[in-house]
Every structure is written in C-alpha cells, then in structure tokens.
Design a protein that fits this description.
11 strands; single chain; 277 residues; TIM Barrel; five-stranded parallel sheet; alpha/beta
Length: 277
C-alpha cells in the first residue's frame, strides 16, 4: 500500500490569519524548514506532492524549480491563502489561473492538483469543483471530513472518490472513525499532538482496510526558531500553530521509515484507471 505524502508550501505567517497587507514586513523563513524536508525525502528516496502557494512561488521561484527537478509533484495551493468562504467564484477563478500559470512557467510541467487554503471546501463552497474542472484540474485535496472552527465537512466521504458532476477526484485528508466521530491525525497540528505510536496505528488501520492515508505538513512546522506572535492572531490559531514544533521532523522521519509513500498524482492515476470502464 502506497500512502500519499503532501506538503503545503507556504511561509510561517501565511497560515496565521494575519492581514495580508502586513506580510511584506515579516521575515522570510521558508528555506529553513524546506531544507529539512528535502533532506528527509532524499534520505528515504521518497517523492511527494507540494501544493505551492502562488505568492510563495513568486518570492521563491528557485525553490519551486528545485522541487520539480528533484522529481516532486507541483500542485497549486491558490494564490493568496484566502479561504474559499471569503472569496467569490470569480475571485477564486482569477487566483487559481494566476497560480497555475506561474507554476507551469517555472517548472514547464502541467499542474493537475489543487488544495484550497485551510481545507475550506464545505457544502457552501462546493462551487469550487466547477472552477477546477473549467481549468482541467484533475484532482483536489481540500476536503477534511471533521469538525473544526476553520474548516470541515464531517458528512463527506472519507476515501478518495470522483465527484459526480465532473471528472475531478477528491482526496480527503485522512481520519479514523471512533465512536461515530471522524478523528483527525494525518498531519499539521494533529501529527504533532498525537503520540507517534497512535499515528502509526492509524495509518496501518487505513492500509489494512485497503485505503491510502493522505498526510500533510508545512515547511514552517520544521522551523523551531520561527518568531512567536501574539495578538491579533487568534489564540487558538497560535496554540495549534506553535504546538510541539520540535516533534515534526521525528514524526515525518518515522512515517517515512514505517510506510511507503507516493505523490498524489501517482495515486490518482491508479484510481482513475480502476474507475475507467
């Protein structure tokens, strides 16, 4: 069983609900965590999918090219890290096309995958799928079937599936069902919160049931010395962002040692072939 390893390529401040007008004044630290990630992937000879924020690609074009040259898959994370529920379809469309154009110019490769900021695909923002299909995006990973104050669609399917209205596949972030609830474990704060043996058991449980785990991390999670912000960042966002950052590298190293991993595009190819008559 090959599981799916993904990274959201954004700098430390871009996911903290800070006004974007102030981003330019903050320290750029993307390279610190990204270097750790690339070393771990190279040591384990693992390829992954990087969902790249357009604003980040504009600031760090050399890193995007380096990722592609190393054989990693490049997907789009939109442009500005604005949640879907704070955009109109027209705004999302413009940002999506802008990000895809830049990423394809930098890598000379097509962009087939997408992940929305803050996993903000919900019943109210499902119009996003129409927009993805319009620009030939083949698969998405914006759905988190949990309850969370910033995202979540708990009633949605938990496994990779094709949307009924378009030939677009969805790869939900992985959860385990416990007592009627979907419990998240598959990256970010959750991977730093749960003890590693529980993470390993959760991935193994999915694999034994015939499903790949879909896991995500951010480069800033590997940067333990990043600035600590206070207000106006909401306290819960601060708590989840900074929680146990020192564990992230060991968690990823353990997952790389204990399981097999692949980019999302490779898994999509296998899913698509199985679903094609």
């Amino acid at each position: 069983m090959h599981n799916i390893l993904t990274f959201d390529l954004e700098d430390w401040y871009q996911g903290m609900e800070l006004p974007q007008a102030g981003w330019a004044t903050l320290e750029k630290r993307l390279a610190i965590g990204l270097a750790v990630i690339l070393d771990l992937l190279a040591e384990s000879q693992t390829r992954a999918t990087f969902f790249v924020l357009g604003a980040t690609a504009r600031e760090h074009p050399g890193w995007v090219r380096r990722l592609a040259q190393a054989g990693h898959e490049i997907g789009t994370h939109g442009w500005s890290h604005t949640p879907l529920y704070h955009q109109t379809p027209a705004q999302f469309r413009a940002e999506l096309r802008r990000s895809i154009d830049l990423l394809q110019d930098l890598t000379a490769l097509p962009v087939h995958g997408h992940r929305a900021a803050f996993f903000s695909l919900t019943p109210q923002t499902a119009w996003m799928i129409d927009e993805l299909a319009a620009v030939q995006v083949q698969y998405d990973s914006s759905l988190f079937p949990v309850v969370n104050y910033r995202y979540g669609w708990p009633a949605a399917p938990r496994w990779p599936h094709r949307w009924p209205t378009h030939d677009v596949w969805e790869f939900p972030l992985s959860t385990v069902a416990v007592g009627g609830f979907n419990v998240p474990f598959s990256g970010g704060f959750y991977a730093r919160f749960w003890p590693y043996p529980l993470l390993r058991a959760a991935v193994g449980r999915l694999n034994r049931a015939g499903h790949p785990a879909v896991v995500y991390f951010h480069p800033w999670e590997f940067d333990t010395d990043q600035p600590r912000l206070g207000a106006p960042v909401p306290w819960l966002a601060r708590a989840t962002h900074y929680h146990r950052l020192g564990r992230t590298a060991s968690v990823l190293a353990g997952l790389l040692a204990d399981f097999e991993w692949t980019p999302m595009g490779d898994c999509h190819e296998r899913c698509h072939l199985r679903a094609t008559p």
